[in-house]
Design a protein that fits this description.
InterPro entries: DUF8142. Keywords: Membrane, Transmembrane, Transmembrane helix. The chain is mostly helical. The chain has one domain. The chain is 83% helix and 0% strand. The chain is built from 4 helices and no strands. The protein has helices at residues 5-9, 13-36, 41-64, 66-77.
C-alpha cells in the first residue's frame, strides 16, 4: 500500500544511481585495466574525468526526469 503507480514512474536519486552505476563501474574498470595493463598511470587518469563527467551528467538527467519528460512530449505529438 506504500507506493501508488505514479510514484513508481517518478524519477528519484536511488533509481538514477542504479541506472548510472553499471556505466560508472565499466568506466572505472577500464581505468584500472589501462593502469594494470602496464601503460603509464597518466593515461588512466586522462580517461577518468570524462567518465566521471558523463556519469554525473547522466545521473542528473535521470534524477531530474529529463528522460521521462522527453518521452511524454513525444507521446503528446503523436
Amino acid at each position: 500500500m506504500g507506493n501508488s503507480e505514479g510514484d513508481d514512474e517518478r524519477p528519484n536519486r536511488k533509481r538514477a544511481a542504479l541506472a548510472v552505476l553499471p556505466f560508472l563501474v565499466l568506466g572505472l574498470a577500464d581505468v584500472a585495466f589501462v593502469v594494470l595493463w602496464g601503460l603509464k598511470p597518466i593515461m588512466g587518469l586522462a580517461v577518468l574525468p570524462p567518465i566521471l563527467f558523463v556519469s554525473a551528467l547522466a545521473w542528473v538527467a535521470f534524477r531530474g526526469g529529463f528522460i521521462n519528460s522527453r518521452i511524454d512530449d513525444r507521446d503528446d505529438v503523436a
